[in-house]
Amino acid sequence: MVCGSTAPVWAQSAPVLLVGNQGLFGADNGSITALNPVSGQRSSGFSGVESLIQDVAVHPDGVVIVTANTSDRVDAFSRSDGAFSWTATGISMPRYAAFYQDRVLVTSHAATGGDGEVVVLALSDGQITGRIGVGAVPEGLAVVGDRAWVAHFNYGADSTISVIDLPSMTLQGTYDVGCSGPRFIAEGRLPEVWVVCMGRIEYNADYSEIIATYPASVSVRDADNPADELAAFPLETVAGGAALGQDVHASGGRLGILMADRVIMFDQADRSRLDDLLLPGTDYAGAVLIDGKATWVTRFASFTSAGRVEALSTSGDVISTHEAGLIPAALTLTGASAVARAEHAMDTQRTFGVYPNPTNALWYLPAHIEGEVVVYDMLGRAVLQTEDPVVNVAHLPTGTYFIRHPDGLTELGSIVR
């Protein structure tokens, strides 16, 4: 039994994790799974996509944008009830979406394989209000201030990005970032923009031999002067998971890059590489999302069976697992992060606290609590000791517990199932 609301997940006020299940090429069977990351409740929703899903993005006003890769369209749904809102057609192979005021920006591949474009849609009804030509095979994009940064992936063969002036909706310029296959862009500590190049492997004509390998790399650019590189981080091999979607995500000053067996982590504030987050097991990895001090990764054992979403602690331990659909390849968290909400509330009060309380699986510790905490049962027995900011109590019986910090602060926490 899962505690919490019985309403469909997407209709709840709590933060919701939306999973874009890519589906199989040629089958048009992509889908959306909605998860409550705190209670574990799961719902299917946003019916009628019927395409290969590339990306899922959520506007602050609650409009959910789904790029339907193989159907040449973009769909919009309501986050509040899962109801269909509008469809925009005539967008060749739509890839990723971002928002600027009341407009949606979508990267689009050219059907002929030439230069692509950024298609501008009205958020209210999906009407196309503009098309801005950019370089070959545009993929990820990010809105930073009044500019949109667009990565030209071209399957690893390109090394450029475009920058669009958003007030005028015109191309400001194209810039060479000096690495192979720019595919994702993330805002860093301003004025910085992080460009992630995925690298590529070059084969001979019949793909029987590797001719050359161009490793992945990260280029940190000046947000005000895109031609200026502030830092570079060459990686050891090509980057990316086993699906189409979200191989890079940044939040709260951390950036993660998905690999086959790990997530490469960066501290954006310090411009430094952190310890890699090793993925448990050998299943495929499809998408990554950074959420406070937790990292979410989608996994699947095969391309024909349902996948799952795992929340990993900073040490790489699996702290929760949730079922998803076929080839989960995109992740987005609507509303404020559960972790960020808790940290903000506790930091404001400057008191010890855990969130959610009661819980059925996880307690999140506020940011000002550092070091080891000990969980005691009502008989005074220590049942759990951890330094992890996400405390997994799924194995503990229902009841009330004392959570104690070395500085003497104590909190009562309840586990309910």
Question: Which key phrases capture this entry?
Answer:
single chain; disordered N terminus; 417 residues; four-stranded antiparallel beta sheet; mainly beta; globular; 37 strands; five-stranded antiparallel beta sheet
Summarize the structure.
By secondary structure, the chain is mainly β. The chain is built from one helix and 37 strands. It is globular and about 70 Å long.
Uncertain residue segments: 1-5, 336-351
What fraction, in percent, of the residue positions are helical? under 10%
Alpha carbon gap, first and last residue: 6 Å
**Main sheet attributes: strand count, strand direction, barrel closure:** 5 strands, antiparallel
Beta-strand content bin:
over 45%
- Overall mean confidence score, pLDDT: 85
If you compute it from the alpha carbons, what radius of gyration comes out, rounded to the nearest whole angstrom?
22 Å
Structural class: mainly beta
Q: Please state the overall shape, judged from the principal axes of the Cα atoms.
A: globular
According to DSSP, the number of beta strands is 37
Q: Number of DSSP helices?
A: 1
Describe this structure in words.
With 417 residues, the protein is an all-beta fold. The protein has one helix and 37 strands. Strand 8 (94-100) and strand 9 form a beta hairpin.
Map the helices and strands:
Blueprint: E1 16-21, E2 31-35, E3 42-45, E4 53-58, E5 63-68, E6 73-78, E7 84-89, E8 94-100, E9 103-108, E10 115-122, E11 128-136, E12 138-144, E13 147-152, E14 160-165, E15 170-176, E16 182-187, E17 192-197, E18 200-203, E19 210-214, E20 217-222, E21 229-234, E22 248-251, E23 254-258, E24 262-267, E25 272-273, E26 277-278, E27 284-291, E28 294-300, E29 306-312, E30 318-326, E31 328-334, H1 338-349, E32 362-364, E33 373-376, E34 382-386, E35 390-392, E36 399-404, E37 410-415
